[in-house]
């Protein structure tokens, strides 16, 4: 009799465990795209959010710290971001870039350290700027005399829409790299050489 009760209890435990396993197996029944889409919609309703981007080019580590605004159906270029004015290339405070070692941009050595990353957007070209004063609100304290370098680049336009301003760091695997900023249908790149 005890054997029979023991067998029945053991059988019930096994059935119960299998039932719980199938309920909590981690298998999702909703479509991942729908979940991502809902998360993105929620994220894009916020005015701007703090973000970071990190990457290595050779033995140089690059870190970007910025606030990322969303398009939110606004006119960005020549609207929210006016042409011909210094822009923090993000929101709130100056976008920061930090290099763990010296790099070269257009033949100029940039010592290791932290810099503000500013731009001056125009319709057919942009000025990209690294400035010594990395800790400032918007461009309130911007002073051109503190620029470490200023180069002109041509923006890539008509790219797929990037809803939120995003920085990425590209390692070209030959000792060179680039910092890319993408927003709306536009992208600009700051090329550099690991020193």
Fold and architecture overview:
The protein is of the alpha+beta class and 195 residues long. The chain has one domain. The chain has 2 helices and 11 strands, in the order H-H-E-E-E-E-E-E-E-E-E-E-E. The strands form 2 sheets. It has a 6-stranded antiparallel β-sheet, with no helix packed on it. The longest helix is centred in the N-terminal third of the chain and has 22 residues. It is globular and about 40 Å long.
Keywords:
six-stranded antiparallel β-sheet, five-stranded antiparallel β-sheet, 195 residues, single chain, alpha+beta
Give the SSE layout.
Layout: H1 2-23, H2 32-44, E1 48-57, E2 60-69, E3 95-99, E4 103-105, E5 108-110, E6 113-121, E7 126-131, E8 147-153, E9 162-171, E10 176-184, E11 186-194
Quick overview of this protein structure:
By secondary structure, the protein is of the alpha+beta class.
**What share of residues is helical?**
10-25%
Order of helices and strands: HHEEEEEEEEEEE
* Strand order in the largest sheet: 1-2-3-6-7-8
Question: Beta-strand level of the residues, as a percent range?
Answer: 35-45%
Q: Largest sheet, if any? A: 6 strands, antiparallel
Instruction: Specify the number of helices.
Output: 2
Task: Please tell me what the overall shape is.
Answer: globular
* Spans where pLDDT lies below 50 across 5 or more residues: 12-40
**Measured distance between first and last alpha carbons:** 82 Å
Structural Rg: 25 Å
**Total DSSP E strands:** 11
What is the structural class? alpha+beta
Assembly context of the chains: single chain
> What is the number of domains?
1
